[in-house]
């Protein structure tokens, strides 16, 4: 047993004689796990009444014969051409109201009865055939679920979903506030999916009725979850045990991964950061994905060994970066490191996407060498880390409902992006080197000393009470501007802002200003240092809270921009504007100081420190130098670097070359 | 009697017990007028054969009982959901050719027989019910008319409109110049609405046939006017007297407000400037709206007390700004100051739009305090100003046809925006402090000493003769580049540019250059000072006119950029390029000097001066400090500030705090 | 016989009495050739069963009577309104899947049987009527062919085209690499035109299947060629001899002009450069258009005498510029200089497009004066240049397939634009003053010493062998990054990059980086000078080639950015990044130096030198000063300026005023 290593493998795209080269090179690189069949529906079901698993059989058998394990995909991420022609209902209708015809991938209407029947049948037959196969270690359902459909099947399913949710039109009309603009619905069939042809203007974020749009987002996420469930249930008919997953993505708004969590046996995701120097972005998503399943190890299902293809500009991963990012995934809880893709296809839109094996089939490329070296390292690390958990006393809350509600809101500012603000606060914690769990708002908060919930726009259920409890028992809660604004239906609380959080925070917000991004209002702290505030400026009237920092400009100069309220044994902080990163770092730092929460090493620019603790209590400390300069740290204890076997003695200087990694035990 | 004060009030959105709070707070703020029922169609007609005025009755009765007056809306600005489902024809087909389904507001096809029948029937029933009700002081038909429809009903109506306009296809083919690109129409039914599917490329301003597009703009504006007329006629069946209006918008190109004017009993508009420091923009639109009804007082139907919601960034009105802008409206002729909205709704797209009463229902917010203080001031001012008129010896011409023709034109420059250039010239007049009427080109010009008609692209009917008459009798006419280019059909005059204006201006334009916005050609005046020219550079060959300023760059350096022609007893000026604001100020200043036209005070930066004269001859002078610095002026006569009762003596210094207002009598 | 002079003439748009003025002014300007009937379908066929050539007869007869010759258009560039109404199939379905209705021009579906039948019938009847007319010297079929259609007729025609191309679905599936994303086609009818509704995202360049999109581009270009052939064949039924052409455009990607070449009797194009100071852009397109027909003289079919109309900003041609650009066309092989348009129409979208005769009909405008002066000059030049050829020892390859394949590719960089890179290299040659032929990749390369093929993304047929032959016999081949990547089906070569060019170039590309445009990696040459590299950075491993320049930054610093490989008697150069212009100039300069290839004069900034050689061996040297400063050159031989008759003696100084032209013999 060891950390899995491998990736997406599509040998059906090339002649079988090439498979020999593939496996020879896999051996050289210590590849042990292959994701197979992600887009094979057209191959395994060439016509509605014909199933043909010949090639898939050969792929699986060959892998097994070579001693490799398989994550077997159901292949339903793209439907075959004959299906779209025979049953046009399987294609999607887009936001503009256009029925698509055959093309691309991720192209199936989630509500199409034909799609639901045939995709489940494919999963059923695959499971019947491969269940119990010793090489098959996991099921991979669909692929990167996403997008949306606005067809009549979806409209009908939406109405049923609404009946289930609201029970009556009266309740729905109230939730959606339909007295506004004469929108009262008198019949379920009057309800249309919100689109460019109905409630929207200027695109998916601009809607006349937030409630309708919000519910459609929820419905669509759940409709796709239903597709996943269909296939999983079909698998379970033959295979009761093998774990089932699907691969999530980073910063993907349409699918509420938290609501999907219970249905996955383990989590996995595809790490394609939107830039080549965003270690905290990746750390955040690793932590979020880990948080989905309560901290259990996850799979890094895809990453490129070198470049992407679909971006306007596709930079190359510099030497050492693929290794660094792979270990970062492990540091944050991954038990598998997989690539897209094992060998480059020669045609279509991913022919220039990086691969372990390139078009020329060489084993002497830089990329292949680095892949092989990492393979050796993973083998060296063995099973030590497998199953280890991340110790964290800080929780960051992340909430798809707040994400949606904030970004479809008219006013106060379209410039506030939920994920960016949350990342500001995460970045401060990451820089400080403390372990963090990124959690849904429904998570148990009782184990955390600090809970950070930036832009908690929507406050649902007993969340306010649970946050208050964190403070009451001595913890710290931190939230920001535009929090506590709306209830689960996106209706404003008929109370002082921030609604149910007001008592905890000891403030009320009287009004709020919004300004273009270039307008900075310096915020002054008690020691006369300042940080920049921007985008939104809430005017806070303390109701017991102490003022930590004040605005310095405009008519609200002198009024609080940051407050702290003693509540029970703990504290609740409020940041009323979008602070720049130094400002956020400072506020977060004060919170951490109160709890004595700092990472095992003093922060060094560019160096990430992360820990995992094995079930037997062994503690692994990962030192990752994302910077372009060598870094030095002072060892705090005797330890061994599992990657080199080198010993580190307490008090000695640990040197990390740029992009280098140490794994101390 | 006093200036009305109040705004849009939608109590149907909340429980009746809240109405008590509403009226209590209205009392505190001296609110006397409520606009009711703007979006109540779904409420008052819950099904095609069911009308229900119960709630509206209660709203009206309660207001009346509280002594408040009502501007009663017909509620047809958004149709109910059942209507769209039962009669899909009531929804619009957009510019892209897509039939919309139920959603949003301002969503009805103006040519739909069903919509026309049922909207008129709603107005009929409302009038039958509330005509004669002592609280009802005005009818408010529809809401912010606008948008466009391209459906088959509209196509058919367009063809009928064209038959009426042209009589024969021969005349139409000539007007549209259809020999070009083989477009000759041989049958009325061959004519299609100009859209993305027919004559347009790159959007609504890029058309292959300007004549078709121009006529569709005219038709659509009139189709919506027909909707207004339908409802007004239905009201008049029961209520012969109560004045009827609808609320216009600022800088709204699709509706030709001048062609609507005769049908409105009084004008009203919604003041949402596209920025928070545009006093001259607001002044211009106040003057334009006043000009629509020949100078009669109008209503400021909507303004936000604090923030908008629909903008990307929604800044807050600073302290004093709401008061300042309210008095500015009055200074320019408003007899009513109304807000959108009296109480914030809790859901949907306007929940963050500012309101007199916020979600928490407080009376101690800054916004409520300022509203209440203004209420007291308006009460203090009493009936003095009511019905007063604006004295003006300067007219600025504004012409929807020129606006349309210019901005749908291919060549010479898409960067010239009609409203911006007109505003440049208005700004110069506004800064100089002179009273201005903004008028349609059909207006009687005989009472004006100066007529400014920037970018008078289209010259129709006897306009050229009437402008010549202004100069002949000693007045001054000023126009600019891209004037006198096309006739009513948007066909170029087959004559020297500027066509019928050539003799008056004493010039001909031989050719014209257009350059990107960053290319500035300094224009030199006789005293060797310069101003910047940009965008379009016409090469003028004087035919009698005197050269006032010349280009300094390019091959046309030394040729005239500004000319003045003596004509009869007066003068005609031509500005051949887009001058920067100092250049426009200078040219306008020379014109004003000739007529000794200057405001009552020497200009002070940021301070606006405006006058109204009551029917009994009392003169009211408004001093409005839009700036952020205190200002001082010297009193030119003894006077009383109606807002404070303070006396001002001639020669004394008047001090205006930032955002402050004085109303001298 | 002389160089033709004239242009598009549409007298059907105005009364016959104006024709007298037209011809009087044509006489004054020495206009001898008129393009007639470009958009007359609606006139000549007012209904399906009615043809009426009355007006066209008069136009032709009048021109003939005045001694002018006619380029007679078939007028099918826009269909009549009745045709669209009666046969909606003639209109196009756009990329978004929307069926257009009547409007604009270039509006016919190329696959519509009705359009094909009636357009050919129009050509047939015109030819039957005017064949043999002594004034008719050429046929002008359609107009500026372009755009695309995605209707069912096109889908069906595409499937037939695919059957012809591939023979079997098996071959097609292989070519399109359809195993990817489950796309295997089992029936021809499953294939859809690639559009926003099928394979595309973010527009026409973003496709899931490059093979499908590439083939549709090829198909659509050929479908329109079929339209041209239909009409030409119909003409040939009556008129076996008069040459037939259609007017091409510059930088027009959708139509593969090389594949059209064989069907045109002579080439012609419309010169509307995308800026007003792009002499090398125009030179390139002149050379490309000349290259289409193997170097035979072409017609400059359209240019504006003054301004365009359809741009956002339409600058005026400065004095002398129209003359300069006209002579530039002649210098590069034009035997005709024609304008759009002879007289300005008064309505619709081209009313502000420049014309020889403006709306006022004057002959004393600057524009008319310059046109008349050029007319006199052309008359003065007489027949000397007619039929002269351009001597060139350098070929630049231009390939529509590479253009398409590169720009629809996912990865490595959307910022690389084919035409821009080719123009970089052409500019270096142009600046050096050497004669260049711009050729298709199928051209015979045996006569050239230097072949420059930038971004030769796709390598088809025996091209690699023919390039190798150029070097083997002592010539030089130069190519760049992103060359040799794909085969004719856009499938990657399963070999080291640059595939079949590897041996010739003596390199292999191991991997490649792509960076945003602002990232510059200085490239250092042997003499320590540097040039900027950007966009794409290929990491080259020499396989025999010598390193000419190296990267200086990033982890590939020191590795080759420019290489030279000795091959046979010659050399092959590779440039692995997008060099800035000085870098390209330097590399190209080194290549030219090897062959002693320099223009007849040392380069002078802004001055273009071009040569033509008459069949009798007379050599004409054109000196064109595009700059804004006077220029001086030293005469290299005794000569006569054909435009002034001035003698130039060897060694004397030739002075060229800004925008001036000399034509030395």
From TrEMBL, chains A, B, C:
Substrate binds at residues 105, 143. Residues 8-380 form the Glycoside hydrolase family 42 N-terminal domain. GO terms for biological process: galactose metabolic process. Zn(2+) binds at residues 109, 149, 151, 154. It holds the Pfam family Glyco_hydro_42M. Keywords: Glycosidase, Hydrolase, Metal-binding, Zinc. One of its GO terms (molecular function) is metal ion binding. Residues 606-664 form the Beta-galactosidase C-terminal domain. GO terms for cellular component: beta-galactosidase complex. Coiled coil: none annotated. It comes from the Bacteria. It catalyses: Hydrolysis of terminal non-reducing beta-D-galactose residues in beta-D-galactosides. Residues 392-597 form the Beta-galactosidase trimerisation domain. Transmembrane segments: none annotated. Belongs to the glycosyl hydrolase 42 family. SUPFAM superfamilies: (Trans)glycosidases, Class I glutamine amidotransferase-like. This is Beta-galactosidase. The active site is at residues 144, 302. PANTHER family: BETA-GALACTOSIDASE GANA. InterPro entries: Beta_galactosidase_C, Beta_galactosidase_Trimer, Class_I_gatase-like, GH, Glyco_hydro_42, Glyco_hydro_42_N, Glyco_hydro_b. Its EC number is 3.2.1.23. It comes from Paractinoplanes rishiriensis.
């Amino acid at each position: 047993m060891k950390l899995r290593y491998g990736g997406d493998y599509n040998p059906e795209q090339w002649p079988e004689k090439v498979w020999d080269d593939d496996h020879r090179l896999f051996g050289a690189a210590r590849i042990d796990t292959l994701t197979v069949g992600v887009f094979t529906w057209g191959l395994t079901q060439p016509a509605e009444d014909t199933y043909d698993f010949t090639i898939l059989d050969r792929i699986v058998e060959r892998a097994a014969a070579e001693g490799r394990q398989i994550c077997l995909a159901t292949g339903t991420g793209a439907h075959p051409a004959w299906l779209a022609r025979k049953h046009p209902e399987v294609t999607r209708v887009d936001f503009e109201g256009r029925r698509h015809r055959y093309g691309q991938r991720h192209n199936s209407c989630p509500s199409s009865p034909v799609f639901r029947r045939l995709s489940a049948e494919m999963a059923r037959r695959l499971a019947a055939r491969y269940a119990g196969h010793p090489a098959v270690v996991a099921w991979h359902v669909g692929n990167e679920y996403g997008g949306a459909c606005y067809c009549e099947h979806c409209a009908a399913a939406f109405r049923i979903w609404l009946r289930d949710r609201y029970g009556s039109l009266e309740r729905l009309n109230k939730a959606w506030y339909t007295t506004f603009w004469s929108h009262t619905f008198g019949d379920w069939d009057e309800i249309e999916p919100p689109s460019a042809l109905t409630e929207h203007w200027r695109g998916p974020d601009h809607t006349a009725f937030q409630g309708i749009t919000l519910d459609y987002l929820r419905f669509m996420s759940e409709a796709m979850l239903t597709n996943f469930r269909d296939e999983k249930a079909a698998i379970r008919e033959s295979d009761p045990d093998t774990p089932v997953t699907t691969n999530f993505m980073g910063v993907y708004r349409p699918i509420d991964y938290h609501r999907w969590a219970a249905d996955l046996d383990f989590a996995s995701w595809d790490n394609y950061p939107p830039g080549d120097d965003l270690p905290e972005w990746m750390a955040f998503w690793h932590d979020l994905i880990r948080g989905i399943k309560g901290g259990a190890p996850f799979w890094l299902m895809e990453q490129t060994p070198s470049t992407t293809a679909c971006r306007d500009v596709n930079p190359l991963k510099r030497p050492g970066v693929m290794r660094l990012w792979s270990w970062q995934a492990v540091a944050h809880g991954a038990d598998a490191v997989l690539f897209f893709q094992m060998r480059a296809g020669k045609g279509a839109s991913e022919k220039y996407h990086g691969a372990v094996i390139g078009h020329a089939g060489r084993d002497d490329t830089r990329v292949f060498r680095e892949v092989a070296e990492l393979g050796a390292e993973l083998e060296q690390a063995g099973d030590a880390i497998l199953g280890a958990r991340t110790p964290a006393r800080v929780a960051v809350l992340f909430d798809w409902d707040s994400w949606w509600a904030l970004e479809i809101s008219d006013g106060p500012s379209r410039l506030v992006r939920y994920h960016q603000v949350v990342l500001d606060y995460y970045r401060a914690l990451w820089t400080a080197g403390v372990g963090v769990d990124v959690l849904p708002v429904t998570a148990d908060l009782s184990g955390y000393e600090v809970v950070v919930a930036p832009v908690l726009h929507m406050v649902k259920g007993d969340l306010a009470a649970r946050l208050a409890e964190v403070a009451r028992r001595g913890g710290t809660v931190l939230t920001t501007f535009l929090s506590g604004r709306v209830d689960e239906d996106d209706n404003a609380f008929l109370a002082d802002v921030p609604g149910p959080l007001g008592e905890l925070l000891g403030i009320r917000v009287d009004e709020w200003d919004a300004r273009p991004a270039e307008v900075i209002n310096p915020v002054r702290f008690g020691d006369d240092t300042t940080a920049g505030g921007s985008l939104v400026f809430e005017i806070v009237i303390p109701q017991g809270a102490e003022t930590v920092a004040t605005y310095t400009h405009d008519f609200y100069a002198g009024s609080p921009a940051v407050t702290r309220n003693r509540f029970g044994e703990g504290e609740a902080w409020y940041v009323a504007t979008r602070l720049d990163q130094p400002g956020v770092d400072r506020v977060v730092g004060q919170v951490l100081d109160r709890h004595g929460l700092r990472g095992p090493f003093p922060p060094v620019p560019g160096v990430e420190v992360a820990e995992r603790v094995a079930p037997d209590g062994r503690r692994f400390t990962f030192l990752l130098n994302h910077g372009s300069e060598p870094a030095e740290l002072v060892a705090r204890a005797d330890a061994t670097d599992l990657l080199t076997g080198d010993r580190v003695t307490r008090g000695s200087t640990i040197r990390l070359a740029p992009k280098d990694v140490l794994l101390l035990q």
